[in-house]
Amino acid sequence: MKCPFCHVDNDRVIDSRASQDGSAIRRRRECLKCNRRYTTYERPEDITIRVVKKDGSRVPFDREKIKRGLERACVKRSISGLKIDSTVAAIENDIYASFDTEVGSRELGQLVMEHLRDLDQVAFVRFASVYRQFNDVQDFFEELRPMLEGEGRPAPR
């Protein structure tokens, strides 16, 4: 493993443990040249799932793209990076559990919205407005109606 600071391939593993969701091994490493420490994650190599886009093209599933979308939706919300990471892991686990080789972009977007609705309702509406390409306030209202009717107003924080 090359050190991200000095780019020398000479390190030692200080600590290894399972990640919080158990899907990876977290390793703390120390570079033997510059003595700086860094963390790496080792994940099992899975079957590559492809996302089928609206135009029929296929691209590899990219968990980082999901993470960036969640981070954009959660900007200026009190949601920790750890919660976002665990949500991304849950989405990824659902995809690998539910689909063999391909997932439609609509199903993927719907899955992301389901997890985001549980994480933060404001972030959910932000994501849904971009994903579903709302054109006016009525579109927002139609998306919010099930949440408002089903749960009532949440208690103030």
Question: What is the secondary structure topology, with strand pairs?
Answer:
Blueprint: E1 11-18, E2 25-31, E3 37-42, E4 50-52, E5 58-60, H1 63-73, H2 81-98, E6 102-104, H3 105-119, H4 121-131, H5 137-151
Parallel strand pairs: 4-6
Antiparallel strand pairs: 1-2, 2-3, 4-5
Helix pairs in contact: 1-2, 1-4, 2-3, 3-4
| Widest β-sheet, arrangement of strands | 1-2-3
Instruction: Count up the helices.
Output: 5
- Give a count of the beta strands, DSSP E runs of length 2 or more: 6
- The structural class is alpha+beta
How much of the residues is beta strand, in percent?
Answer: 15-25%
Cofactor: Zn(2+)
GO biological process, one term: negative regulation of DNA-templated transcription
InterPro entries: ATP-cone_dom (IPR005144), NrdR-like_N (IPR055173), RNR_NrdR-like (IPR003796)
Family: Belongs to the NrdR family.
Description:
This protein has 157 residues and is of the alpha+beta class. It folds into two domains: 11-42; 50-151. The protein has five helices and six strands, in the order βββββααβααα. The chain has helices spanning 63-73, 81-98, 105-119, 121-131, 137-151; strands at 11-18, 25-31, 37-42, 50-52, 58-60, 102-104. Strands 1-2-3 form a three-stranded antiparallel β-sheet, with no helix packed on it. A hairpin with a 6-residue loop joins strand 1 and strand 2 (25-31). The longest helix has 18 residues, at 81-98. The protein is elongated, with a radius of gyration of 19 Å. Residues 152-157 have low confidence and may be disordered. Its cofactor is Zn(2+). A zinc finger (unnamed) spans 3-34. This is Transcriptional repressor NrdR.
